[in-house]
Structures are given as C-alpha cells and as structure tokens.
C-alpha cells in the first residue's frame, strides 16, 4: 500500500494505532487497513463501539463549552486525536475567537493532520508529546507560546488515560499536571470503564485472551475517581458519558446504565 500524503514518513503502516482506529470508528478517512481491521474486530466483539465513540465526542464538546462558559481562555487537549467533527478549537472559537487551544498527541498522524487544518490559525496549534512524560509535555506546551501557565488552563484528558497501563501511573501523571496549573484551572476526563458492562470490557481490554495490540485499560469507578484527587468535582461528579450534563436527546448516543465510559470535570481550588 502506498503511503498517503497525510501520513508522515516513519509511520508504521502495519501497526494499528489508537488514534487511527478511533478515527475509523468515527467514520474518518485518516486510517490504514490495519486500523480498520482493528476497529472491525472491536465491533464484532462489541457492536455498539461507534456509539461509544460518538458519546465520548459529545461529552468532550459539552465539557469544553462548560469550561469556556466558566471563563477558561486556554485549553491544552492531551491525547487530542485525529481532527474530526466538532474539534475543540471549533467549539470554543464559536464562543470566543480569542481562546487559545493547543493539541498534544503522541501519534504523528494526529499531529500532522491537526497542523494541516490549523495552518494560518494563530490561536491554535499542535505538538507531538507523551502524557507519560508530563514535564516534557508541559515544556513543549509553554514553548509554543499558546499556553500561559500563569493563567488558568482547561486540561482535557478525554479518552486517553485508559491507554496508559497501571505501570505508567496515570493517577500520578494527572497529579503532575495539576501541580503545574494555576488555581481556577479545570480538568475534563473521560475513561473506559468495566463498571457497567464487565463482560464487554473483558472482551476489549488489555488482558483479553486474544492478542490486543492497542492495550486498552478499562478501570472501575474507584480507579477513575482517583484521577480527580485534589480537584473539586463539578456536579454531577463522575458519571456515565451520556449523563454528564446532557443538553438534548442527541447527546444520548449510549443508553444510561449501559455506557462503557465514565466522565467528570474537576476544578483546582
Ligand atoms: N481526545 C480525543 C477524543 O476523545 O475524541 C481522541 C481520543 S483517542 C481514543 C486517544 C488519543 O490518545 C489517540 O490520538 C492517541 O494517539 C493518544 N495517546 C495515546 N497515548 C498517549 C500518550 N502517552 N500521550 C499522548 N497522547 C496519547
């Protein structure tokens, strides 16, 4: 298969990536055959996976609007993924075109495509960075000039922390980020959970018996609530994706009681 123009040199086209597999689930076009196969395999095990992806995107948009309405004027979106409908900069610039947005992702395809769509936009940018190395990530963010760590920041950790293994210490990584931001900052987190549908989580999770190349770490409620340690939880707390401040019927992509994701927003006092 020829390398498409959007795929940077050095990207292994034989290895599925979470960013491209998620893009495939959302019906995007920045994915390889191996990603589409991984997405199809996931759907054969859990047919409503695309609804989960839509439910997660809907949470992201609601949380971002909530943060912008709460006065946040700069967003650091970590594990931002391949741009798709309703990106953070589009949502916030509809509220205030001066809001700054920095996308950070470990996946070169996600970063390259983000840069391509942001060309000429002085209020938004993208960096390649690893959440497992928060100090480096924060340095890169500061170097862009888009994020001023002397002012409150909206940190977005949406559908990314479940890609970190326990050995990557995800709770400690969130704590490192919290330590670096000013009071008045917020964090929005969504995370795959084994809480409501343990059987389906078992089929898709990193410990599934078939070789899972993506490595998704479903966690229980307690494990996800622990990530908000030190943040004041905003109402309604850590809840299923579709019931975090739904705005309309259209937000109910997944039936409450059946979601594979938990989500919440916290504020640093
Ligand atoms: N946040 C977007 C959303 O919720 O729609 C995209 C979520 S996508 C499922 C997860 C993203 O996290 C992927 O783009 C992947 O490349 C990125 N990612 C995985 N591990 C990461 C890490 N250690 N540091 C930064 N990004 C990472």
From TrEMBL:
Region (Disordered): 250-269
Signal peptide as annotated in the record: none
Pfam families: Methyltransf_19
Superkingdom of this protein's organism: Bacteria
InterPro entries the record matches: SAM-dependent_MTases_sf (IPR029063), SAM_dep_MeTrfase_SAV2177_type (IPR006764)
Protein name according to UniProt: S-adenosyl methyltransferase
Protein's organism: Nocardia ninae NBRC 108245
Lineage: Bacteria, Bacillati, Actinomycetota, Actinomycetes, Mycobacteriales
């Amino acid at each position: 298969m020829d390398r498409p123009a959007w795929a940077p040199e050095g990207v292994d086209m034989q290895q599925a990536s979470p960013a491209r597999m998620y893009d495939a689930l959302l019906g995007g076009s920045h994915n390889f055959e191996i990603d589409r196969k991984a997405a199809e395999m996931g759907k054969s095990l859990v047919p409503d996976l695309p609804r989960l992806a839509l439910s997660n995107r809907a949470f992201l948009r609601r949380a971002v609007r909530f943060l912008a309405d709460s006065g946040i004027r700069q967003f650091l979106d970590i594990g931002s993924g391949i741009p798709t409908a309703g990106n953070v900069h589009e949502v916030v610039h509809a509220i205030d075109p001066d809001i700054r947005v920095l996308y950070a992702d470990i996946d070169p395809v996600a970063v390259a495509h983000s840069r391509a769509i942001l060309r000429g936009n002085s209020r938004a940018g993208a960096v390649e960075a690893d959440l497992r190395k928060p100090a480096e990530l924060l340095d890169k963010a500061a170097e862009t000039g888009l994020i001023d760590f002397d002012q409150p920041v909206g940190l977005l950790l949406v559908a990314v922390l479940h890609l970190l293994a326990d050995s990557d210490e995800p709770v400690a990584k969130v704590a490192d980020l919290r330590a670096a931001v000013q009071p008045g900052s917020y964090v929005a987190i969504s995370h795959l959970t084994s809480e409501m549908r343990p059987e389906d989580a078992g089929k898709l999770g990193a410990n599934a018996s078939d070789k899972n190349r993506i490595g998704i770490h479903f966690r229980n409620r307690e494990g996800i609530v622990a990530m908000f340690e030190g943040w004041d939880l905003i109402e309604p707390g850590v809840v299923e994706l579709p019931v975090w401040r739904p705005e309309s019927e259209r937000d109910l992509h997944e039936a409450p009681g059946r979601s594979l994701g938990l989500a919440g927003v916290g504020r640093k006092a």
